[in-house]
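U., I forgot to send this yesterday:
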Amino acid sequence: MQLRVPAPPEPPAQGGGRAERRRSARPSARMRAERAARRLLALFGPLAPYVRRLAPYLRRLAPYVRRLKPVYPRPGRTGWRRWVPSWRQWLGGFLSSVGLLGAFLVTAYAMTDIPSNLNTYATQQDNVYFWSDGTPMARTGWVQRQAMPLKDIPQDVRWAVLAAENETFYSDPGISMRGITRALWQTVGEGYTAGGSTITQQYVKNVYLNQNQTVTRKFTEAMIALKLDNKMSKDKILEGYLNTSWFGRGTYGIQRAAQAYYGKDVGKLNVSEAAMLAGLLKGAGLYDPTLGKANHQRAEERWKWILDRMVKIHKLTPQERAKYTTFPEPLKSNPLYNTGEQSDYLVELASQYAKKAGGLTDQQFDLGGYQIYTTFDRKREKDLTDAVTQARKQAKRDHQAQAKDAHYGAASVAADGRILAVYGGPDHRTQGYNESNAATVPAGTAFLPFVYAAGLEHGVHKTRGGPATPVTPDSVYDGNDNIPVMTPEGPYWDRSGKRILTRNDGHTSYGQITLRRALAQSVNTPFMQLGMDTGLDTVRQTAESAGLLPDTLGPQVPALSLGSSTPSAIRMASGYATFAADGTHTEPYSVRRITRNGAPVALNTPRPERAVGAETAREVTEALTDSFRAAHPAAAATRPGAAGKAGTTQDDTAAWYAGTADSVSTAVVVYRMDLSKSLEPLPLQGLAGTPADSVPYRLWSAAMGLD
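Result:
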């Protein structure tokens, strides 16, 4: 037979009507079919491997499925029996439902992806700061959490949690169908939420999803849990769960829970304490025994149940269980410290140093998990803070008008650079800057030891460009008041054409005086001339090598030798510590060790460097010892090795005391400044006491343990 193929329709003319052009612009049926096929392929493409595997079985079932095709009303039946399905139809309906459900679950599983990012809140941890003796000092961060490797969590602690929450954890597929069914029934059918999750599901909820109790969230949780169980080891899942679960008292994770409830690390928990903490996972608000009698009763019952459960699953012997008959009472409150008042200043110093020395970005540090072991001495910090607090109260009684503008900065630094204590202000939350680290007021005569050290170390030049002449502590200088400052060419004239004269406190003249005695008695005129003879650039270099920062050193004019520089209390203490360390300087540091979740973080710790010769340092220390003995003979008798001197300014805007004892240097400064009006210091007007009863000295002696 010959087929007649009709000719294809002619294309419409280019100039056809509007309706014809609209019809031609519509997609053809073939194009629509192709688009639909592509959509179906994209939707069901992931199922292709599963369909290929099931194809042989589906072909075998096809004849039986055709026989199960329902025919309604049923032939050969009368009355209501015509509408009752046969057993084949019941079976077909059941198998069809199971098949559809299976296809749905397979599709859902194939299309569910494990989220690439964890919840930010689930990964954020706190940073914890420790005193030099290893006890907690402060913590920062939005959450109390510290992740711990599973190897550092004892087996008894792990199995206490598993006995309480999911004893089949190591054998289940990541979900519990029985638990899910029960939870869905109670959520949908009875209108309230319930548990029923495995530990894998709870971990998924903690780190990938939210805490909303809905059917959709529950189903997504189960799908992710199944996939996670196939891709991640059980130990890693358990580790993640133990580090992200809520235990009450503001804590997340078993490590912080151990510290919050028992004041110890998780590695030191016994099985009884672990069972109590495991009970909190059911709901800390109901099982924290310190929140009331009802809570205590529930907590004790659950504690017993968990221990018995551990016996049942063979993780605890009956003999071991018999040892634990008394409920392990937790601490009444969380001992993990928040920052406040002085500890804020310490945290500020330590965090700045930790990021710099550890090479950490702000983002890395803010993510948390760091343990910062500081150099701060708890007792010294308390003694210093108590002394300044008392001085503030005394100032308000004796100098009410001046006390409102009073500022006190203090720091203690060891000869090896460790910052042991600081006083930064009354409260960091109301005064956001650190007095101990502020470069605000001149050092005055507290700067003289650096001029003395420069002269002893480098000698003096009596002629321009000539050789240096050695200087010793017994070198004699003119100690009279109101004498001109000399250069090799004659008197020194400033830029305004005025001849510069040197003046002593109280306009006292001392005649010819040795440098050692001049330092002990704080005579200005010899050191102003010594600075010129040594070279002001050499004085600057010596002060910088000893520990003072370059940007706080005064202009290179004769006043530099009389303390126009503005070092902070920390830097002044560090400079004096250089002399106590036989002339070696170590940059002050506040952190000795950092770990993150127990793993060490590389830290760039400063190393000692030679600033001045050992003999020079000893000569400076001896002169400071003479100064201390002359001003405070009673204290010197009880502490023979103490050395120090007062520092005053000609305009009475700052009072200092700096000195060393037992390889520790402390510097204290008192000044006035109305920050609401200006950054210019104001006259002290008696606020710092008298030379015989100096407030800076009293604070210094308290910090050094001399009073």
